Amino acid sequence: MDRYELRFGGVGGQGVILAGTILAEAAVIYDGLYAVQSPTYTAQVRGGATKVDVIIGKTPIIYPRATAIDFFLALAQRSYDVFHHQLKEGGLLLVDSTLVSRVDEDRYRVYRVPITDLAEREIGRVVVVNTISLGLTVAMTKVVSRKAIEQAVMARAPRGTEEMNMKALQLGFAKAEEMGFAPEETKAEEAV
Amino acid sequence: MDKKIQLWEGNHLVAEAAIRAGCRFFAGYPITPSSEVAEYMAWKLPQVGGTFIQMEDEIASMGAIIGASLAGVKSMTATSGPGFSLKQENLGFACIAEIPVVILNVMRGGPSTGLPTHPSQMDVMQARWGTHGDHWIIAIAPAYMDEIFRGTVRAFNLAEKYRVPVIILLDEILGHMHEGYEIPDDFEIIDRAKPDVPPEEYFPYDDSKGDVPPLAPFFTGYRYNVTGLNHDKSGFPTTNPELIQRDMERQRRKLYANLDDILWYDEYKLDDAEIGLVAFGSMGRSAQVAVDLAREQGIKAGLFRPITLWPFPEEKVQQLAEQVDTILVPEMNLGQLILEVERCVHGKANVEGVNKVGGLPIEPPEILEAIKARI
Cβ contact (<8 Å) for B176 and A30? Predict the structure, then answer.
């Protein structure tokens, strides 16, 4: 596939835009791909519906916004409601089941992971919701290599949080494998 | 793995390019979606011996960069629609006093407070005619990271070369998007001409040696008057009609006799085009994809993308009107650039708009539908 479109939707404060930046950095800096990160947010600092589009490809990205989305991550019900429409029929939908319940089951391939719950329970900090999400996203789509996302997360992790973020990322990888997504060695259909 | 490639935000890239072009003074007042420029300048300028100052408002910011430029320092400010409105009074001062400054306007929805976090292209005409009175300015509207970088460097170069305010127009999409980019080192830097006469023989508006008189930096022994009133060559006010006529014509001529140097544009698949698109900024990117989508369906579409919006690349649009029957102008407003296109086309082709103002961009499939509706 020449162009792979992802969208992360949440509410202001969850870190979805930063997650999009890190994914695009993994693609551009560490995997040598082309990528664009394009955010949308409201005037509310906390709580407004927020999304970020990340488009990754082997050739330059001309139009910088997603129009036919392959993978959608919903970290809030409101963001799902507002932003899911451009997800392709049969596209991958990953929802944080702690916060999102109503989705279009028949239209998308739906995967539910209690991401916020996992962050609190397994890592002890809800702030790593976006890092766990990145682990899940990369393991499910293989849009960038695991090594690239690890390097990108480490480059962005504030000093003293490296270990926590790496653990959160690995937790995301593990949860995706539990849902049947193959480890990295076998290329899945979604790979760029 | 090439470590030199970084993921750049459009706004940050403008700021970095400005510093590489020699900008050492930034005054501003933060406003979405341009605040990241101020943020970056506040971090980076002190590291290179420059000065960042957050002023009390946009009016003062514009005044501060004019003052800094008169002291010989390349200066810029950054804002969005509401702030751009406030800057207009002092922008006019920079025009009549011929002070090189660079103003970035990251366009959001308007008028007034409008849509702070959403894109628009509603300030096309304001960039040209926002301040009152006859005046001549340059406005550059980049669409890609390389154009954002080189366009910003070019904005400073043109400001310095022609002693004129230069406006950079981005929109929220381009200001906030991130994309991989490697900063080049193959760019030219132009500094303003300085006087080659001693202070007692210097006149700041003496056009005897050309349309762009040398500008002496303040505090170097050169003393002269700077005013918003029409002035003679010494800079002191005059109401002499002949002098004013001559001076205003020179200010126009210094840009319009140098269009080959100033104009910048891109053409995409225009050679055999039967239907033309004219679009700029982020909508230029959307239109380029629409051209490809149309060609996949056997429709020979092509794109003319002005990067210099003011002065407008008039002749190129006139040529396009000779070639195609229909020209579509997709823009995130209800019809601004189209007015300039219509003026140039002068009835030689049908000119129609593709417009959207709700804060959402016009997507390539929407432009494709507009193309198909005219075939």
Answer: no
